[in-house]
Backbone:
DNA sequence: ACCTGCATGTAATTAGTTACATGATTTT
DNA sequence: AAAATCATGTAACTAATTACATGCAGGT
C-alpha cells in the first residue's frame, strides 16, 4: 500500500487533481494515511508513464490551472489485482496511543491537552465526513457513503474506546505523577 | 515516531536485545508498528552513540550471544520529552480496511479469505497478549498490563466493528459482484 | 536433509518527508 | 498588511525495506 496505490484508490472513485487527492487523504480520509506533495506529484507522473492513469489540464477562473487525473482500464485492473493479492495487513501508527500507554510519565496538564487535541481532531474529521457525504458533485454518492460510513464507524468506536480510557485515566485512583527530573522506576 | 523512539519506548519498560525488541513489536504490539532488522540494528547503534542507551553482551547456552540494551537517564529524559512534545497524531495504515472499503470489486471468495486471514491474525495477537500478561520475567507486570489492556481493548472494538461490517457485506442484498474483466462503473 | 528459532549485521534500493520555488486570488 | 487557499513541481535529505551474509541448535 504505497502512494501510487492510494492514488489509484481515490481515482477509482472519481477523477481528481493531485491537490484534490491530497485533500481527500488529509480530510475525508484523515486517520488513514496522509501524503506529502513531494511524494504525490512524482507518483502521479509515474502512474501516467506506466499507463495506469491519464491527465488533462483544466483551466479555471481565479485559481490556477489544474491537472485532472483519470484512472485507465489498466490502472483499474492493477488496483483491483494488487488489492486482492495483498495480505490483509492492519497497523496503527499512533503517537497518541503511545502517549496514552505512557500516560504516567507525562505531566497531567500536558496529557489533558493532548487528549483534547486528538478529540478535537476526531470531531473535525467526523464533521468533514458528514460534509463529504452531504454534497454530491464529483464522486458517486454510493461510493462516498460506503467510504464515509466505514471511516466514521471505525472512528466512532475508536472515539468511544479513547473516551473510556480518558475517563479511567482522569479518575482519582489513577492520578498521573508529574514529569520527573530523574529516571522513572518501571522495573518493579 | 520513528524506530529510535519505538526502541526507547520498549527499553523504557525494560532491558532488551534487538531481537527481543523486534519480537515485542511483531507479536505483543503487532498492529502498532513492525520494524525490520535492517532498520533496527543501525537505530540501536545510534542510540548508543548518542548516549541514550548502553549495551552489554550476554552469553547464553545453546543460542548465540546477545547484546542487551538498557536505556540511560538521558535516553529516558529524551523519550519522555519527545513523547510530550509530539502532536497527538493517529493514523491507521491498513490494507485490510481498504479491502473492506472496496469490497465490491473483489471476488467474494477472495474477500472471505482476506477477512478470515485478518480475524485469525487478531485472534493470534490477542492470545499473544494474554501470554504476555500471564508470564512475568523481564517486564514489570503493571506496565505489561497497561500496554496489553489498551491494545486488546482497541483491537476488540475493532474486531466488533469489522465483524458487523462482514455480516452486513455477507447479507444477500449486498452480494458483491465478481472481479470484472473490464472497468467497474463507479462514476454514477 | 531441511526447516525453524536464535542472533547480529551490511549493502543496495525504494519510499517518503521537508524545504524551497513560483504566483494569483480571496479572506482576515 | 498578512495569511490562507488554490495549484504544481524540484532538490536534498532521511528513513525504511528487502535481500544478502553468517552460524549454531533443535525439531520433523
Residues:
Amino acid at each position: 500500500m504505497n502512494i501510487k496505490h492510494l492514488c489509484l484508490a481515490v481515482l477509482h472513485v472519481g477523477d481528481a487533481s493531485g491537490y484534490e487527492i491530497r485533500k481527500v487523504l488529509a480530510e475525508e480520509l484523515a486517520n488513514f494515511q496522509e501524503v506529502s506533495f513531494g511524494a504525490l506529484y512524482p507518483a502521479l507522473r509515474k502512474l501516467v508513464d506506466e499507463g495506469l492513469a491519464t491527465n488533462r489540464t483544466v483551466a479555471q477562473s481565479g485559481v490556477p490551472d489544474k491537472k485532472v487525473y483519470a484512472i485507465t482500464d489498466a490502472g483499474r485492473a492493477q488496483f483491483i489485482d494488487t488489492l486482492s493479492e495483498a495480505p490483509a495487513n492492519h497497523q496503527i501508527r499512533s503517537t497518541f496511543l503511545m502517549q496514552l500507554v505512557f500516560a504516567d510519565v507525562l505531566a497531567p496538564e500536558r496529557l489533558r491537552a493532548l487528549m483534547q487535541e486528538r478529540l478535537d481532531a476526531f470531531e473535525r474529521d467526523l464533521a468533514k465526513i458528514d460534509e463529504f457525504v452531504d454534497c454530491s458533485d464529483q464522486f458517486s454518492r454510493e461510493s462516498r457513503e460506503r467510504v464515509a460510513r466505514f471511516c466514521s464507524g471505525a472512528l466512532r468506536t475508536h472515539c468511544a474506546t479513547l473516551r473510556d480510557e480518558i475517563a479511567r485515566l482522569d479518575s482519582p485512583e489513577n492520578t498521573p505523577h508529574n514529569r520527573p527530573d530523574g529516571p522513572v522506576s518501571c522495573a518493579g
